[in-house]
Amino acid sequence: MQEEQRRTEDASKDAFFERIAKLSEEMVAAHGKDFSMGALVLGARWIAEGRGDPGHKAN
To answer: How many domains, in total, are found in the chain?
Structure first.
């Protein structure tokens, strides 16, 4: 059972990576590399600060 859960989780993660890659390509095409990298870094910062948590309350 645990092996199947791992495979399901891996497949889910792979799907998210594919979506991120496609979105990144679209952002580069529309606005260039600098914008795209900045947007992804800001997204990572947002998550690191806990704002990606549905239970997070803004100050």
So the answer is: 1
Cβ atoms of 36 and 24 closer than 8 Å: yes
Residue 58: both structure tokens together: 């803004």
Contact 27, 36 (CB under 8 A): yes
Q: What are 13-51's pLDDT values in tens digits?
A: 999 999 999 999 999 999 999 999 999 999 999 999 998
The pLDDT confidence band at residue 54, using thresholds 50, 70 and 90, is confident
Q: Is residue 58 part of a domain?
A: no
Report the alpha-carbon distance of residue 47 to residue 16 in Å, rounded.
15
